[in-house]
Amino acid sequence: NEYKSYLRMSGSEVISRIPRPPTLRGKQTRLVFKYIWISVGLAGVGSAYYAYTNIYKHHNRYRTFWTNYDPDQGCKRVNENMAHWEKKMDYWLDTGKWVGPGMAPIPDSEE
Fold this sequence. Notes:
The protein is an all-alpha fold. The protein contains 4 helices and no strands.
């Protein structure tokens, strides 16, 4: 009875009796290489898309911003809006409510 002989064997003897090919052959080898090339191709496409959208275009946006930037005009605009910013901060510190971005109107004080 072959089943009883398997029960008497140790684990390594049972494993050694299972027939296995020494290397992948035929269709298995082709599939492995096919999936490797598919994964490499998809990784390359994803990397190229990321590089184009998040590096190249991002760099161009910053380049066009800084070529058109005038620091004197920026300082002038900041100084014009400083009084409004200070009023917003005072309102926020007094009430704990944030007014909003930019030149959002400040509500009348609740006092």
